[in-house]
DNA sequence: GGCCGGGGCATTTTT
DNA sequence: TGCCCCGGCC
């Protein structure tokens, strides 16, 4: 440990060593926050805490994975693996599964992602004959999500005057009913959405003190990363768990709180002291990332925010260049200026394309930079877009997986009841849904026993439904007997998806085939990882539990080619680049027009720019355009007010801005749904009488899975090599090249027909099993 | 079921 | 200006 401490500066050391009571570590940008967190955990382990007594929460899978790896390198893999480390959602979904019976769920509940819940809301709105122009699914979803994050159940919502009146004012009085219906439907279907995972955890702890007490005993030390991004539900879970021992350390930076629109509440960190009396604050103020000019410029900007914890972030790196402010006539020209600068800088210095990032406020801005870079032959990559698990073909397969585990899952049923086409169209589905609502049962119950619920369909349809039911039952049955890999295969084959997707070699199908292959590789990798950890039988449930909470946010590690990066500022949090371009610094774009309603949101926009600037290690440039195509129209754009917020000492201003003051001193109007709207019900949450949910007796042992699925490739490459057709010349000893795994030697061949697989010893990645049906590789000799 | 065209729309998106 | 969704049509 001694030698580790030498890696830390004074304030980092203090933060690591103080563990007697609650502490808050304010970690300025680039101040070595992760290092403190990892060393602190290592230190706790050394001071006698068992790994399974430490709970360490992060917001992203990626952060959890990285921290786990770093801790493993200090204390060893097996110890690190026993830590309770993961995202809020993954850790508490594990806890919910173990205690599901207390909440009227089974441990097999499935998880709705954002699009599932939106789709359910859509159908509810339709069923209620409401106008979806007024009850926009997305807005309704946001309102419900906010309510859940504030721990307001439908019952509580209905009696909450503020909320009900606010909805009435907005001419949407029925939101409370939609919420109630949505809630009931999720229960019937045995599913939870992302927000439910946190809300039900709170309900579990509130209504079952014995459970809370048990976890208080287990989690003897709690650490939370990125605390500025916690919402009320998360805050309360932590508060409940740490009550008593108060061994809690939260790390964060209020200046980097940029997710309030997702429910994050900056006051959680600002007011931490009142929640944890005696809380010690440590400030990590030395920035190791950026030049002095960049740090000072960023400081001068964030200084304009009222709501913040004051700190003195400083750098002892070189003074560095001033921040360039680039003024363009048009968005078009802005693209060219940036592209030109990239090539100039690359030519004049030793920079690689990887050293550059273009950060924008909205995804729509990327186009123009793409064009400009392409014209100059500058390679680039764009982050954001459809994640792997959101691709249609993947969602389809996963819907079947979900049904094998939880056939009541409504959205999964809707998705695949007629995919591949089996003659159960919208009309029939509509009847099934109606019948389910009428009898207060799940769709699956109607499908399983249509006669019992007098489903009004003809015999032909009844037959088709029967077939579908048998199919799903086959999967359920198989799921009880087979491991993840085998059942995944079975599902893909028996559902008809295989036939569908491998029917022809159209480009779309080829891409689907690749994605399907990728999914199988993902399961494969998941299984082999788990096997390495000594788990023999890997159930599909475990895989599903993992990927339901996986997003594709992780960066593309296997693409190490030299490219300029483009992404939104939000996506850039936590990353660093030598050279940063922050583009589109214009009023109504950055700050966004909608954020000008309130000072709060404006401050968040300012923090967003702070985050953007502090990504830079060596150079930073801010650009704006005087005109920009917006909604088809060329629009005059005044420069962003934020340009005035930065101390000009650290800027190279264009002469134009120096002379005339066209940054308007605008009058903002404050309005509408302020952040306080949910506050009235919050504090009383733990006292409120809630209808106790019916409980079912079912107890499952805690499954010990460690979430770490290696990232799947989300990018469509167009290379295709047919391994699925002919396998002549493929024998033990043959040398093959695989798209992903590189080259290797075939060491064994096994299985028959569709099950035929080969074992390959790859040079880079070691031994892998490949299903011939799916594997794409070429035989080299 | 798939294709086409019109209309509405257009912040950010850790799980 | 583009994109996405829906409705109408084959």
UniProtKB/TrEMBL annotation:
Keywords, comma-separated and alphabetical: ATP-binding, DNA-binding, Helicase, Hydrolase, Isomerase, Nucleotide-binding
Family matches, as PROSITE patterns: UVRD_HELICASE_ATP_BIND, UVRD_HELICASE_CTER
Top-level taxonomic group: Bacteria
Domain UvrD-like helicase C-terminal: 292-574
GO function terms (MF aspect): 3'-5' DNA helicase activity; ATP binding; DNA binding; hydrolase activity
Gene3D superfamilies: 1.10.10.160, P-loop containing nucleotide triphosphate hydrolases, PCRA, domain 4
Residues that bind ATP: 27-34
Family that this chain belongs to: Belongs to the helicase family. UvrD subfamily.
GO biological process: recombinational repair
Every UvrD-like helicase ATP-binding domain range: 6-291
Protein name from the UniProt record: DNA 3'-5' helicase
Source organism per UniProt: Coprobacter secundus subsp. similis
Known EC number: 5.6.2.4
Signal sequence segment: none
Record-linked InterPro entries: DExx_box_DNA_helicase_dom_sf, DNA_helicase_UvrD-like_C, DNA_helicase_UvrD/REP, P-loop_NTPase, UvrD-like_ATP-bd
Higher taxonomy: Bacteria, Pseudomonadati, Bacteroidota, Bacteroidia, Bacteroidales
Reaction catalysed by this enzyme: ATP + H2O = ADP + phosphate + H(+); Couples ATP hydrolysis with the unwinding of duplex DNA by translocating in the 3'-5' direction
GO CC aspect terms: cytosol; DNA helicase complex
Pfam family, one: UvrD-helicase
